[in-house]
## 1
Amino acid sequence: MFSLKSISRESVPRALEKAERYRLLNEPQLSESICSDILKAEPGNEKAMVTMLLSITDQFATSSIAEVDRAKQLISKLPGEYEKQYYEGIICERKGHSILIKGGYDAQILAYDWLRDAMIHYEKAELVRPPDNDDALLRWNTCARLINHYQLEPRVEESFEPPLE
């Protein structure tokens, strides 16, 4: 096994730029790795936590449900209620979208559930958003458009009545 090398606190801004660049180049694993190094050097670095969370969600199409839990662990470390609700919504939205893209049994129902959960978080974020920040509304609209476009619907609960004796 190799021991990981630590980066200096002075190199964090440059490392953050690299992490963001790798995300934009569709290399979320590299971005996540850099964010891990940044968070070791500066554990409370909000930008690194958000970039790492987004890098994890970028991998939802090829990852397991355990990755959702890893992303959610970062939520509790974010400073404000807006950020917590907004990024919880991002996690749900991206998981729903990845399920929709993968397809499979009950994919449309599961995607609907995840997208509705995202919309609930965006509504909560909307209530505490900073002035002039409509990001939560934009994301809510994206979820609504996906649900409408794919005509997603919730699971219909079948009622069961035992036979009368």
## 2
Amino acid sequence: MRSRILLVAIGVMLMTACAGTAVRKEGADVQATAGVLKIKAVQTRMSDKAKAQLPDNIKFDMGAMSSTIERTLSASGLEDPNSAGTLDVEVTNVYVRGTFSAVMFGFLAGVDNIAGNVRVIDANGNVLRRFETSASYAFGGAGGGQDGIRLNYLYEKFAELTRDQLRDQR
């Protein structure tokens, strides 16, 4: 009986170890746009809070994250040089566990996380779509604690969630 409970507990932990969310934010400043949005350029920046977190999260690479977003959108056909839209990504929260903690303690050492506000802006500065995106990674150990695995997962998950919001047909 105990072994079944242990197996169920492990299964639940594995299913919740990596996650991501994207939540659409409607408002008076957001123009109603339906359908797929294509963008011309990607701009990434960090909020003051995220900048303050960088000394404790030196492994985070804004250039790698930006490149992953651009590559994902290009591969999905959402990048169009004739489009007037710009994707504005503001990273608002960064937490990356230390390598030792991630390998030795896994999810008990916390959860790696990147969160941000994403907006699609037209040529006139109007916001066409706005959403909050968050990607997290809690695996650890010898198989999932290496920095490259964890950070690449976070960058790719953030990019995939962003892509999905641009494709959203609502």
## 3
Amino acid sequence: MTTTIDRLFPRGSGIVRPTRAGAITVNQYSRRAILAIWAAAALPMGGLAWVVAPAVAPDGGESLTRALIVLLTAGLVWQFVLVAGLVGYEQRSLRWSRLREALWLRPPQSPRTGRVGGRTWLVIIPLIVGLAAEELIPDLPHAVSREFGDFLASDAGRAMFSGSWGWFAVVMTLLVFNTVLGEELLFRGLLLPRMQGAFGDRDWVANGVLFATYHLHVPWVIPAALLGTLTISYPTKRYRSAWIGIAVHSAQSVVFAVLLLTLVV
């Protein structure tokens, strides 16, 4: 019997990419399937931020920030579960040898020289600079309690995290699932390699737009996030490595982690 999952993610319509163990099949998703995955990531995050968080913290302020940290961490963990479920369904396995190829978790390969790894990693330096430039784009107006960076700079933020290793651990979990195991793994590891069939050579453009508009939980960053199309989506495709996006995106997390650590200690 053909299920809904079978119709959205058919195992037979794929392209073959070599691996050391032989070959794996990477399915090309339809636009319908891509939008379904986008919705499965974006809608829970939006609902948690704008419906659930205010419900559990109606007084706003610091209590709202605490609720957002916990709830959005849960939303990011869900994205990891979603990726694991979809790639496991596709590959019939979660072995690292298969995941590495299916999710582009391999060293970057220069499209000009064919060099794998080594000095090719240096490409992330200008990309990190480009991502940092996005911070110069003004955000749309929003409450301080909904912007983690602004909250950390406030008196309430410093008081909340001073000596609090428990909250430090929660935020570190959020950061890891945000830029390594959640957003990047979903959009650049799972989706991008499977979007060419639906969007052709502009798959990286569509990927960047989907990633920007996914930020329903923090919509004021959407204009700046569109630049991630150039600093993350395109380089990830060009070098065929999700580690590019993970490394560039995680630079932001490292800054937050260092700032947070100075408050805790």
